[in-house]
Amino acid sequence: MSGILVATQLFNGLSLASIYLLAALGLALSFGLMRVINMAHGELLMLGGYFAWGTLGLVPGPLGILVALPVAFLGSAAVGAVIETTLIRRLSARPLDTLLGTWGVSLILQQAARDLFGAIGVEVRAPDWLSGAWTLGGVTLPSARLFIMLVALAVLGALALLLRRSRLGLLVRAVNQDRMMASACGIDAGRVDLAVFCLGSGIAGMAGVMLALLGPVTPNVGQGYIVPAFLVVVMGGLGSILGTTVAALILGLFLALSQIFVDVSIAQMLMLVFVIVFIQFRPQGVAPARTRALDA
Amino acid sequence: MAFSPSSRKSALLVAAALVALPLGACHKSGPAVSGNSVTVGVLQSLTGTMAISEITVKNAELLAIEEINAKGGVMGKEIAPVVEDGASDPSTFAQKAAKLVESDHAATVFGGWTSASRKAMLPVFERTHNLLWYPVQFEGNECSPAIMYSGAQPNQQALPAFDWAVKQGFKTFYLVGSDYVYPRTANLILKKHIEQGGLKVLGEDYVPLGGTDFSGIIAKIQQAKPAIVINTLNGDSNVAFFKQLQAAGLSTKVLPVMSFSIGEQEAKAMGAALVEGSYASWNYFQSLSSPDNAAFVAAYRKKYGADAAITDPMIHGYLDVYAWKAAVEKAGSFDPQAVRKAAAALGAFDTPMGKVSFATNQSLVQKAYIGKLKADGQFEIISSSPAEIQPEPYDPLAFPGKTCKL
């Protein structure tokens, strides 16, 4: 075991953590506020990949990927709005119904992508400025992974600012802490729900663009990320942005560092065991959100 | 606790299903030769993760059936194919195989792709004494009278690739694969041969099927600095692997990669630019030049699209149907037991991949080729085995003392 390998895996752990964070943030938002377990979250990621493909087709050239980020954000947010208004809103009185309902949406979106774009998947290539790699003391730092970290940091910062400083953030925090009291004060909780669900969906879309730089864009690509995303949310403390971030870091580093000793299959198994043991000792997660919704 | 009306109804349904199950299994299964047609099964994944590869094999099998019917069928009878969907799920494959044999009375079945699907179907064909024609390269270490193994045995794909690598002067190897029976067994065999040749395996890593994170593996490859990577990843994982190799500065020009599951179709789907310059080992490449191959490519494209890519398993699926026809005619019977014996005694026949024959162990005697992927998604054939290779289901180094006698 050499120092360079450990340093490389530390970097890879941070890179994985940034991917997990992007994939999990939207899930944490919708669960934290609405208690909705969105099984279609992976498909919103998948849509982001297809939005990237479509945008790169229309805007070729080095900056296409930067255009794809807002396009995917808006596109996935729009799909999220449709899901929220047509389905989740009508089922949200019973959380298990939303689980089944969104699972159905997930299947429909997968099949729709298969019918529209083919089962084979589409080709998204990283632009030249993202295909190189930097070397720092023998450690290779691929530009694509550095870029994903930057985007994850930017999204996290913007989200924190939005929740802490904006009026929407104030409303979200109010509804999150006590939905009935907030409604009694005249806050339209339904509209806050819609805004948060769209925001979460939009972040999933951006995550999909980032994933397309490193992986395939296929109808079922979202399935591969939904389980780690749920693990991050559960471990983070349901609905807490800070907890989600810390949990993404812990799991990313755990997976990368364990790969120094074992292969990926075993590492993923160890990660599951780790999360189960962690939840045994700290069922509330890393940093639970304080909310009345959990008192019931 | 009282039964609610709905749960009583479902209890009744379950009971009815339990009664019906053994009844269903009582059907006598003999080949369906009725009047002037004979039923055969075509069983591939038409949905799910394997659909990308298997739909085209189904197409090739149906093309062969159509061509044979156009020329008068088999022993004067038209072939009536029943197409079923294995849905990329081994237990569905087993269930549909039983349905094809027992309720459709198929004379034989063409199909399967993953080793898991083959292993799931095997007991069905052994129990019903029927015959499965399996079109895909696999890990060997299996020998059943109920299957005609037309895809490559390890000594017809993996070992020729290894021999080629040795000839190129590659001395150190890194093995990367999906975590299931084929990569694990193929690598077990390769490791034995690498060690015997006095060469080195610098690492061996597995990713769950469909896995997309290769950062750790690539870090280990960068540390180990192997001369060549042997890649037995399956499906979408390949896209992630090559993208992340490229991002880490290890393009195929810097680090040669030999893949066992990337054919023309997969290269096209991944974007040939991503995998250009990587190597593959197959028994057929679309770029093979022969009149038989040109005729097949033209016929397939006429039916399924002018830009369709043709792959090794498609050719195996296609030739399986012709081999079955020839064997039925040689045996003078549709009985699977007579057919499998006749198939092994057919001798060499012409196919788009050249002359092949079935050995007495029911595997195909065939050549092996090494190709290098070009920017247009086609392979340039850079090496070929001097002659057809006899199939060896049990590698003598990895499985000493085991033989396949049928």
TrEMBL record, chain A:
Keyword presence, Transferase: no
One GO BP annotation of this record: amino acid transport
Molecular-function GO terms, alphabetical: transmembrane transporter activity
Subcellular localization, as worded in the UniProt entry: Cell membrane
Top-rank taxon, per record: Bacteria
Pfam families in alphabetical order: BPD_transp_2
Annotated Gene Ontology cellular component terms: plasma membrane
Regions crossing the membrane: 17-37, 44-61, 142-163, 194-214, 226-253, 260-281
Membrane topology classification: Multi-pass membrane protein
Principal location listed in the UniProt entry: membrane
Keywords: Amino-acid transport, Cell membrane, Membrane, Transmembrane, Transmembrane helix, Transport
Family stated for the protein in its record: Belongs to the binding-protein-dependent transport system permease family. LivHM subfamily.
The protein's name: Urea ABC transporter, permease protein UrtB
UniProt source species: Novosphingobium nitrogenifigens DSM 19370
UniProtKB/TrEMBL annotation, chain B:
Top-level taxon of origin: Bacteria
Keyword Signal: yes
Signal sequence, renumbered to the chain: 1-25
Keyword Metal-binding: no
Keywords of this entry: Signal
PANTHER family linked to this entry: ALIPHATIC AMIDASE EXPRESSION-REGULATING PROTEIN (PTHR47628:SF1), PTHR47628
Protein name: Urea ABC transporter, urea binding protein
Organism expressing this protein natively: Novosphingobium nitrogenifigens DSM 19370
